[in-house]
Design goal:
mainly alpha; Ferritin; 7 helices; TspO_MBR; TspO/MBR-related_sf; transmembrane helix
Amino acid sequence: QGRMWAHTVGFTVLPHIGGFLGWFINRKKIPVWYEKLKKPSWCPSRNMFPLAWTVLYTAMGYASYLIWNDLGGCSSKAIVPLGLYGAQLALNWAWPPLFFGARNLKLALLDILALDLLTIGTMCSWYRINKVATLLLVPYLGWLAMATCLTIRIWKDNPEEKPAKSE
């Protein structure tokens, strides 16, 4: 019983680790650079992001636990469903350093487009295993759709500066 509790907590907390590290590393750059970007009127306030990600990471982490548990742990049946989940989580964690750290809007856009596809693939692979786990990812996919549209708009509305040509 205690071991299952530890697994539940571990899987639920895991997504928060990368999210927290991404915020921590880029926290000083966010207010300065991000605030200067041209953003659409429907862009959520900066205060909304920590709340949204706390809920989304908790739901996706618990969902991954449900899948892991239903498949009997790290079995051969878990390779694809949890591999897709891990891949999308890695792309999720890579987005803040690309966007805020490197300020590479094009690469951040490519990252989030691949993230969208991997998240859909994860949900498709999870559907037959556990419908509740799949449904727990629906708000995440909705948030990713908004974040993808926001990334596209920011990329289009804020052309990257070209290095000056030397004479």
